[in-house]
Amino acid sequence: MATLTAESYNTGFLPTWCPGCGDFGIWKSLQGAFAKLGIGPDDGFIVYGIGCHGNMYDWMKMYGFAGLHGRALPVAQGAKLANHTLPVVVVSGDGDCLGEGGNHFMHAAKRNPDITVIIHDNQVYGLTTGQASPTAKPGFKTKSTPEGSTDAPVNPLALAIVSGATFVARGFAGDLPGLTALMTEAMNHKGFAVLDVMQPCVTFDKVHTYQWYRQRLYRLADSGYTPDNKLTALEKAMEWGDKIPLGVFYKEDKPTSEALEPALSGAPLNRLPLEVAHWDKLLNEFV
């Protein structure tokens, strides 16, 4: 068997993202994480949302599905039910996941399916040329908020924690080794894992640049932080400004929704025969 590397997932086509886009770092980090975990192109499944991030579908050699805007999580949960042994990753954007898909995000976190969600968080809808996304901070000027955003932003980390996600972390698209390590840990976690990635949009956001982030980011692990307390995790999740923390904010061991489903206690559903024996007995239970 050939050794897996990041190049094992190249499709032969080059991305068309804007030069310098943070999507490049997320794409390469995800390839590296799959290789480290030994998940080959035929061994996993990626569900993509709608947005610049969704174009990764064409440049990632792995089974994938491009869903409707905001509907990546229902598709991912359906795939996980059909084959609960399959590694399932959601590649979504801050608008796709937290705007159009916000309802799905909260309820998926509550149910705790064994799915990894990677959020491209750049505060804008980049594919539609730079309107403010749900994570846009107050005062942020975009095409849809020319005088500056007045809405309170959605905090992906805090929302994930209070909704029940069992692994919550933040990474940076400009730190490939660190982001690859976080993706690897998120995919290794059994449960609903959320990785919010600070992703500069070099075309439509001239404020939150790579330099802007590097001047503020620090690693939680360097301060002796332990991600085992929800209240402490929430405090750190709310920290934003001159200092912005990176790393794992919270994690816990908890039964996944698949583990609590009796129908999934044996072989995956996609491997079971379609024939149903004793139709009369089955109907009598419900009629």
Model description:
The protein has nine helices and ten strands. The chain has 287 residues and is α/β, with parallel strands linked by helices. The protein has one domain: 3-Layer(aba) Sandwich (Rossmann fold). The strands form two sheets. An eight-stranded mixed β-sheet has the order 2-1-3-4-8-7-10-9, with helices on both faces. Strand 7, helix 6 and strand 8 form a beta-alpha-beta unit. The longest helix has 16 residues. The radius of gyration is 20 Å and the shape is globular. The termini are far apart.
Question: Main attributes?
Answer:
287 residues; globular; Rossmann fold; 30% helix; two-stranded antiparallel ribbon; eight-stranded mixed beta sheet; alpha/beta; 9 helices; single chain; 10 strands
